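Quick question about two entries, pasted in order.
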Amino acid sequence: MKIKVSQLSNRMHEVKTSNRNMEKMYDLQLMMAKGDDIQDKEPIEIIKIQRDMLRGLTEFLTTVLGLNKQEQEKLADMEFKPTIEAANYIFERMMGMSDEDIDLAAKKQDASKSKD
């Protein structure tokens, strides 16, 4: 499928939902979930988990999108939040959601947050 990650470039990236790429996605999602469960961890362990998650994110984006050197440099200089957003967008697309589905889900989430 063609995916454009505007935070990195204007070009479309060919992303395959091959078993290899899907496994990379699930590995990263698992790592991110473990990164959310840190309340009983020591500070050094927390830092290692977060560092490994950041490395996993950049490796995932670089590999799955096939980033060129210029895009890799842009990724290295990106803020953390847009990096997470880019990865989540790719996860959603790889799991079969269209851009319209993603927009609709985001609107529903925003609407439920505004009710609180």
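Here is the second entry:
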Amino acid sequence: MEVVMYGRRLDAVIAAAQTGSFAKAGRLLHISTPAVAKQVNTFEREYGLTLFDRSRSGVQLTKAGKEFVEDAQMIVRQCEEILRRAQRRSADGIATVRLGVSILRPGRRILDLWQRDAGKHTDIRLELVSMPDDSEAINDIITHLGEDVDLISTAFDTGYWDDTCDTLALDSEPLCVAVPRNHALARRAQLTLKDLEGTRIRILKRHRGANDTARDLLEHHPAIDLIDIDHYDLDTFNDCAESSDLLISKPMWAGIHPQLVNVAVDWPEPVIMHYGLLYPLDATPVIRAFISRIAELSGLADRTPCQADRM
């Protein structure tokens, strides 16, 4: 019997595994929660598998499910790459560079830069690839840059991705706070740490880099209530808008949520990340050509991408 697994049901299985929830998987796939549950249940029943343990808090992969999803993701990536290579070979010699974009990584600055070059670099086509904002999924994409996605524009700490991918730093990204528009502090141009006393601020759990520097400085003010978060996604921004909590944010997220406004912070010492591009360690010549051109358009013409990384 021929077994053909790749399709909507496998997409539902992988999305549920990535998000730990049929509801979140549905939002990721733009289908309803019952539709996701039906596709997963049908898949398990047809192939005699139990891939998930279900509970009220969500779904969790079984041991067999974890092994299955890891193998399936690898096969899906291989199939998609085979298709993309075939498409690129038939595209009249124009090479494609794929920029991953999402709500929290919209890539606007890269697109604006590339638009300046419109018509001048006709041998490269920039393709936008939709990505989730789930941290586990994003980390997997970054680990496998060059397979589904070639580039991601984001904020990053110096050295953080050195063992995983190359980076091109284009700008500084000083941490700020996202403030609900109906909050008194939203009307300020800049805030001191004294201004933040009496507020609740959501901040990533201690890990490293600029975020930890911000935490260290905020912890010197006991009147500031720090609330740990595991990651950023649209739900995080929605929760802050509804609760009037503040959120440690970045300039690249200005305008992400209509009810929140970014306000600069006068930190006692620099609390800055880089903004730029992540790309594969073994990047193809066309990716490196794109990186070099973006560096030139950004005013980094006198520096190589590697030198720019170490700004």
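Reply: The chain has ten helices and 13 strands. Residues 1-5, 302-311 have pLDDT under 50 and may be disordered. Hope that helps.
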